[in-house]
Amino acid sequence: MKSYLQKILEAQKGGQSVGVTSVCSANQFVLEAAMRQAKCDGTSVCIESTSNQVNQFGGYAYMAPKQFVAFVKRIAKEMNLPRPRVILGGDHLGTGPWRAECAETAMGHARNLVRAYVLAGYNKLHLDPSMPCKDDPVDRDEHLPVELVAERTASLCETAEAAAAQRSNDRTRPVYVVGTEVPTPGGLKDGKNELSVSNVTDVELTIETIQRAFKSRGLQSAWDRTIALVVETGAAFRTDTVIEYKKANLRELSSFIETNNQLVFEAHSTDYQTQRALTEMVEDHFAILKVGPCLTFSLREALYALSRIEEEWLTHQRGVTPSGIPQLMENLMNKNPTYWMDHYSGDKDQLRYARHYSYSDRIRYYWSHPECRDAVARLLANLTLHQPPLPLLSQYMPLQYEAVRQGRIRPSPVELIHSKIMEVTAHYSAACKAGTV
């Protein structure tokens, strides 16, 4: 029986403009909403964790790969989504988290990372050793030579294949996504306004070089399971700007990939693009649309809106302790600025604005903090016990207010959060023509 990814890829190569959304998040609310969307569409859901979120040392989600897999399985069970309809992927698996180390050390960690992902049960792997380490040779644009990226990619693939052979209860071999021109994970830093679009000559060289590196290590079977290439689309986002996808700039790349009977493109940094742009990406053979920060951006909008409702509704209610989530997040981000300080610039007011409201959504790194989890649990408990009144829903969550009035959702805080996040997943679902394959 063909997998959902195989069906999507075959349909793309058969001329259908269809795709799959890859949800790159370790946040429970986001995963629940994505699974709700899959249930509505009658499709599978692709969930990916990044090497920064989930790794052998815990990552910022405080989970190793096996723990994340168990976490996703538990959510799928609670959401009544059959486990075979959940595709688990690893995103940016490579040297990224350890790029401050020398290359030998970083690649050692990267191989251990890939091994842990495969043994945990992941079957879609984006191999990404494109980030330079501290002792690496780079060109004027801080890029590694394509031959070096290809060799490291093949090394990681070799590790993945060896680990897959050890899986006693699953003989399924992983599928791979590769590439040397990989957009910056999580959006652009302040000061960088645009990205170039990969040119066909470089893309062709990348494919040939990586294929040759795989073949030299006896990985032809793995190359045959390589399904997609990551390229620069010219689309991106930064603190308060979205750089729009321009279909006209991708005509040459789109025509080129049509001549390849194996590969499609995987689009990174698709967050905040319009539904029309997402649809055009799928038409241009970006059959895998990765999305992450804009989902947690919507989560933050929902939690802040509910916090305002809580404040207005329950501040003077006897026995109720408000969650105070916005101020708590400000305290946490100031106490540990690691995840945002290199991404935002400006005076103290501009920095405060960016910490909370930036498209870059660096606040997502803090939702897993124990104090934050406790505050969110308090918010949910308060608004479950004291149901939000409709006028306040209309004020702070107008679309959810309409959904409640129409009987499509209940006014429970969890359903309100899911509904807010699904405003985003619905755009991706429509662009990918979910449910038509």
Can you give a write-up of this model?
Strand 4, helix 5 and strand 5 form a beta-alpha-beta unit. The strands form 2 sheets. The protein has an 8-stranded parallel beta barrel, surrounded by 8 helices. A two-stranded antiparallel ribbon has the order 7-8. Helix 5 packs across helix 6 (200-216) and helix 14 (390-396) crosses helix 15. The chain contains 16 helices and 10 strands. The protein starts with a helix and ends in a 5-residue tail after the last helix. 48% of the residues lie in helices and 11% in strands. It is an alpha/beta fold and 437 residues long. It folds into 2 domains: 4-293 and 426-432, Aldolase class I (TIM Barrel), CATH 3.20.20; 297-421, putative tagatose 6-phosphate kinase domain like (GI Alpha 1, domain 2-like), CATH 1.10.400.
Furnish the topology, listing elements before pairings.
Layout: H1 4-13, E1 20-24, H2 28-41, E2 45-50, H3 65-78, E3 86-93, H4 103-120, E4 124-127, H5 146-166, E5 175-178, H6 200-216, H7 220-224, E6 226-230, E7 236-237, E8 242-243, H8 251-258, E9 264-267, H9 275-283, E10 286-291, H10 293-314, H11 325-335, H12 348-357, H13 370-385, H14 390-396, H15 398-405, H16 413-432
Parallel strand pairs: 1-2, 1-10, 2-3, 3-4, 4-5, 5-6, 6-9, 9-10
Antiparallel strand pairs: 7-8
Helix pairs in contact: 2-16, 3-4, 4-5, 5-6, 9-16, 10-13, 10-16, 14-15
